Amino acid sequence: MGFSDNFFNKVEKRTKVDKNTILELAKQLQENDLKNENTLRDVIKKLSEMTGKPVSQQQEDKIIHAVINDQVPNNVDKMF
Question: What residues does each domain of the chain span?
Fold first, then answer.
């Protein structure tokens, strides 16, 4: 799935994370097992730090549960 510059502009405006950082993180995600809880916790922590938005333990657990159980929506671009 390719994302347009418009998508990256929306994400950057909302999160203050630039396109290159997003692409680097995406590459890291592709190279790791997304069903691995430790990998997911590391990614969530990095995203939290990059965006300056804290993630509670409860939120982190819900995110991990959703990813591991394939409950993440396919249309991520609609979230922004």
Answer: 5-79
Label each residue of the chain as H, E or C: CCCCHHHHHHHHHHHCCCHHHHHHHHHHHHCCCCCCHHHHHHHHHHHHHHHCCCCCHHHHHHHHHHHHCCCCCCCHHHHC
Look at the block and give the residue holding tokens 């929506």. 73
pTM: 0.66
CA distance 38 to 54: 18
48-56's contacts with Cβ under 8 Å and 24+ in sequence apart are 50/15, 50/17, 50/21, 50/25, 51/15, 51/16, 51/17, 52/16, 53/15
Summarised one tens digit per residue, pLDDT across range 21-72 is 888 887 877 777 778 898 889 888 988 888 888 999 999 999 999 888 888 7
